[in-house]
Design brief:
Elements: H1 3-7, E1 46-51, H2 67-75, E2 82-89, H3 95-100, E3 108-113, H4 118-125, E4 134-137, H5 141-144, H6 149-165, H7 174-188, H8 221-251, H9 271-280
Parallel strand pairs: 1-2, 2-3, 3-4
Length: about 300
């Protein structure tokens, strides 16, 4: 449920449903419900998932506005009955909620919110987590870490928390192990190197001339006049370039056309040469041998 639903706020501006729907008047279970205004009085210990969606179509989406409601939820006496708690907020920081809230019976805590890993430090420093035994990292780390170093840290810490949860610590000892893990994370973070001092410029470059652009000018009479001056200057410049091109084209003498005096039949081989070559060299024929038969010496001509 959302923080408003946990607190039972039913404002007219927000369409919020009631945390627990009332029973019908003829229900036989009414005899077991105490006559009190607290709807959670019949639940001594239960599981709660506090969340707010990041989707744009949700009217109650998380845009960072749930800090005050979460602080009120942490101070609520109903939070003392919670045994399993999951916190899912992608824009609202939950550090103050986990650091100053009252969680005496929370045995399992699922963190699905930012800032990370500061939320682990808040849990380790809150003495009201005296019944805490298990801590888990939510599956939506891609949404609340924002990628980069926090995403890699959440993956590494999830494996370390799995080893700590496997020990099944008794009540009250989980915070000590969590405090050691937070110190190890702080020691592993490298110290940021100071930024180098900027070098003095060898020479100060002259500022480039700026040309006013019509779409960047303000909507004032001076801006309109400046925009009209820029447009008129551009029109005159293009017209001058066109006139110069026409004048240069008319004044330029025409290039004489070069005539090629070439006879394609000048070097043509006469057909008689090909006929003589056919008489000397037989035409390639697959039916005839490539080498002519030997002529007897008696019929050979000198």
């Amino acid at each position: 449920m959302r923080p408003q639903e946990f607190l039972g706020l039913h404002g007219q501006e927000l369409p919020i449903r009631a945390p627990i729907l009332p029973l019908p008047p003829d229900s036989p279970a009414l005899r077991y419900i105490p006559d009190t205004s607290d709807p959670f009085s019949m639940c001594p210990l239960w599981d709660i998932h506090l969340y707010a969606t990041p989707f744009t179509w949700d009217q109650l989406r998380d845009t960072g506005q749930y800090a005050e409601l979460l602080a009120e939820v942490g101070r609520s006496p109903s939070m003392e009955r919670v045994g399993w708690l999951k916190v899912s907020f992608f824009r609202t920081p939950v550090y103050d909620f986990l650091r100053h809230g009252n969680f005496p019976n929370v045995e399992t805590l699922v963190l699905n919110a930012r800032p990370f890993p500061e939320v682990l430090e808040a849990v380790a420093e809150n003495e009201s987590f005296r019944s805490l035994r298990y801590i888990q990292i939510g599956d939506d780390r891609w949404a609340w870490t924002g990628g980069g170093v926090p995403f890699a840290q959440s993956l590494a810490i999830a494996s370390d928390l799995a080893l700590i949860n496997a020990r099944h610590f008794p009540h009250g000892e989980m915070r000590n192990s969590l405090r050691k893990l937070v110190r190890a994370i702080a020691a592993a973070q490298p110290t940021p190197t100071p930024a180098p001092a900027p070098l003095a410029p060898v020479f100060a470059p002259a500022p480039l001339p700026t040309i006013p652009v019509p779409r960047l000018l303000p909507h004032t009479p001076e801006g309109v006049r400046a925009a009209n001056a820029v447009i008129l200057t551009a029109i005159v410049l293009f017209a001058a370039i066109g006139l110069i091109r026409v004048f240069v084209r008319d004044r330029t003498p025409p290039v004489p056309e070069y005539k090629f005096d070439y006879d394609p039949n000048k070097h043509k081989i006469p057909p008689a040469v090909f006929d003589a070559e056919k008489l000397i060299r037989p035409v390639d024929d697959p039916q005839k041998p490539t080498n002519p038969p030997a002529v007897p010496p008696s019929t050979r001509r000198d």
